[in-house]
Amino acid sequence: MAGKTRLTPFAKLLIVVVLVGGLYFGLSTAGVLDGLIPSPGDDNNVQKEGSKIEQFESGDLITTEDDVINIGVVTWGGYAGGQYWNNGFEATKASRFYKEHGFAVNFKVLDDFALSRDAFNAGEVDLLWCTIDAFPTEASGLDAQVVFQADWSRGGDAIVVNRGINSVGDLKGKSIAVAALTPSHTFLIWLLDAGGLTTKDVNIIEVESAIDAATIFKSRKADAAVVWSPDDQDCVEKIRGAKVLESTKNASNIIADVFIGKKDYVAANKQRLGQLYEGWMRGAAEINASDEAKVTASKILAAGLNLPEDFCYNAINNVRLTTHGDNENFFGMNRDYNGVTGEDLYNKMGTIYTNLGYIKGKIPSYRLVTDKDIVATANLAGEDGQAAEGKKTFTEATDEDKTKEAISSKQVSISFRSGEYKLDPNAKTIIDLQFADIARTFSNARIRIEGNTDNVGNPESNKKLSYLRAQSVAQYLQEEYGFDQNRFVIIGNGSDKSIADNNTPTGKAQNRRTDFELIAK
Asked: Are 297 and 364 members of one domain?
């Protein structure tokens, strides 16, 4: 019996090729493959050499990598203006940036701080998020410039506390979980200052992120924690008696998200960055003006961040998406603006972080780490929705506001001549240095100013004099910083609230003080 014939591998391959070729010829002749195989020159279906193709819901495709701006972001609602205008996180022809200017944006979610900086240094992203308050801690190590502001945090950052902590003063000696050198850290520093405390008065538990801070708090390993929303509500729900002590809803001008680019990249791409900025601002204006646009933006964020739509909707509500007018104020281009600027925050936090030992060496000048050209040359003047945020207005203070528990209280010694209540230059300087910045950054909080005296003189006269002194402080803040007069609650205590012994010169001096208190809405 003859043995079986075994085909060689080459013979098998040859048979397969012949069969596939015959099948292709037959189907092609019958027209079955028409429209399935791209024709030469069909740009919508053939991937060009060196190009990157990504599919979008509309079926539009990106062109070449040269037509993409890669932007590193984190899980945050403050970048919605750009993501909304781009019609998604991916670079596609559905982007309004592409339709108007021929480029699109690819948003890369980089929640890990160290990895995001590595990506920036390696050129994997052209622009990268940061906050102006923390930028001094890394400005010397990044060859970068700030090109525009995207948002102000308005509730996105909060401090949660255990039962029994009702004011900033109650935090003294308590343990607080916080991510060092992040917006959370900045917020805590400002809040402690508003209560007359420093980080030395509390026990800081340093963690990697605000998410970790929430975990520490829910594990009952800290008395308080600085967290992101909605982790603040989650902490309150999980820990009995816990509450939100304060958030950036009141501390409204502390945390500002900005975007940085390498100096060479910024210099070489002024026109394109200007187009990016203009579209981004238009997107922010649409979201600010329309709930329908906000819902659309939340859908885009939900898809890009892989999160629920309601989470993303709330995330957008926890920020102020900045406009062109806001950017002009932020970069100090409006001489009539007396609110908080980027330079204010950069310089102050640079000094604070240096004094705390987090920064070694010289901090680059703010002028060197910013490029105002993108904002200054923008063609947005007079456009709907591009005006700067208006000044906060308050209803007239009530009797309840006079006794309402304060979130924080800061004692400042303002010297007056005996029997007088008018501020001299030295007194104004003390207010500028010790309280004005707090009043500007906590712009949504009502301020109670209480005047106090020692026990020298008639009690009723002292009450009247202390009231006039507190009133003169409020008037100065109104005239110099433009605060709404209804924001202030004026009280004259006379000598009724002494904090030291009136039988000694030192004690008398301590009692001749002015208390500044922040009252939540």
From this structure: yes
- pTM attached to this predicted model: 0.82
With bands split at pLDDT 50, 70 and 90, how would you rate the model's confidence at 4? Answer: very low
Residue 384 within any structural domain of the chain? no
pLDDT at 120 over 90: yes
- For residue 175, report the phi and psi dihedrals to the nearest 5 degrees: -90, 135
Tokens of 16: 């397969």
What string of DSSP letters covers 128-197?
EEEETTTGGGTGGGS-EEEEEEEEEESSSEEEEE-TT--SGGGGTT-EEEEETTSHHHHHHHHHHHHTT-
Q: Are 220 and 213 in contact (CB under 8 A)?
A: no
Q: Residue 362 is part of a domain; what is its CATH number?
A: 3.40.190.10
Shared domain for 317 and 234, answered yes or no, is no
CB 119 within 8 A of CB 72: yes
- Residue 66 three-state SS: helix
Residue 227 DSSP code: E
Is pLDDT above 80 for 491? yes
HEC-encoded secondary structure of 458-507 = CHHHHHHHHHHHHHHHHHHHHHHHCCCHHHEEEEEEECCCCCCCCCCHHH
Both 430 and 515 in one domain: the answer is yes
Residue 487 lies in a domain: yes
Question: Of 11-15, 31-35, 212-216, which one has max mean pLDDT?
Answer: 212-216
User: Does residue 47 belong to any structural domain of this protein?
Assistant: no
pLDDT band at 383 (very low <50, low <70, confident <90, very high): confident
Tokens of 58: 């509309």
User: What domain range includes position 127?
Assistant: 65-153+254-376
Cα torsion for 91, 92, 93, 96, to the nearest 10°?
-50
Count of domains observed in the chain: 3
* Other beta carbons less than 10 A from residue 474's beta carbon: 18
Same domain? For 371 and 228 the reply is no
Contact predicate 75/305, CB 8 Å: yes
433 backbone dihedrals φ, ψ, rounded to 5°: -80, -35
> What stretches of 257-361 show up as alpha helix (H) in DSSP?
263-268, 270-289, 291-305, 309-317, 324-330, 342-355
> Do 141 and 200 belong to one domain?
no
Does a cis peptide bond (omega within 30 degrees of 0) precede residue 230? Answer: yes
